[in-house]
Amino acid sequence: MTGPSARLLALLSLLQTGSARTGTELAERLGVSGRTVRADIERLRELGYPVDATRGAVGGYRLGAGGSLPPLLLDDEEAVAVTVGLQAAAGIAGIEDVRARALAKIEQVLPAHLRPTVEALGSTVDRGQENVGTDAPDPEVDPAALRAVAAAIRDTEWLRFDYEDAPVLVEPYRLLSWQRRWHLVARDPQDGSWGTYRVDWMTLRMPTRRPFTPQPLAGGDYTAFAMRTIAASGWKVHARLRVDAPAQSVLDRINPTVGVVEPLDADHCVLVTGADSLDTVAAYIGMLMMDFTVESPPELIPRLRLLSERYARAVAGS
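Given the sequence above, the corresponding structure tokens read:
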């Protein structure tokens, strides 16, 4: 160590790894005595760092949680990874401003020898458009709402919110991020039914502070459940089609998150599909390459007619 200040920074870096470290281990890593380590621990505490100490065979020192976020010490690889990760997160609805602030803080203190690497990655790596499945804009999600939902899941407390103008009370279990949208998997405490809810459609009410006894989903696969139910409940618009094909033939051609198939007989089925706009529905159902009849909504029919006329003109002009 070149001096007390450098040693304190090295000690802080060791304590930020998460696992407890014994005084002997810290002394060996820093090349000082155990007495010096104890003095440096007290100095960090005086500076406002909450260093916790535990006794016993598995005891040691670790950095605890404080009233505010202390400065973080990152090694070179960690600093590059965090910076590139924040650069890659650009455009995610609901956290863009927060992401930009965090990135600016890290870039401001990057060591000179790391700047060429970070700048090279930032200037040579492009991000392809991710929202390619719809013409609708990405939904805005309030980060505070995500934190509140996650806290209710962590604390196993009932969650109350308005959903499409209706009051809802649920037992929250999992958050799922998919297709740049956030979904909550939850259980109705009244009838025991399970559902998936779009977080950007929620208007949260005051926290209930009422704990519940978890009743896990049968099978325990919350992601699979959400992916199955998003097709029927996770889109702004839905369409019901009668398809002149066996149910299995339709299932073989669609993603389960965008369609629920109900067999009618050996050669016909009903497809309930959805998207965030009817134009997206109109474009995608043509990819079935099967005959179908629109049962609902009637607003879908003019869009299909417009597409058919354009396709017909394209064929006529070829």
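Residues 76-124 form one domain. Try to locate this feature in the token string yourself.
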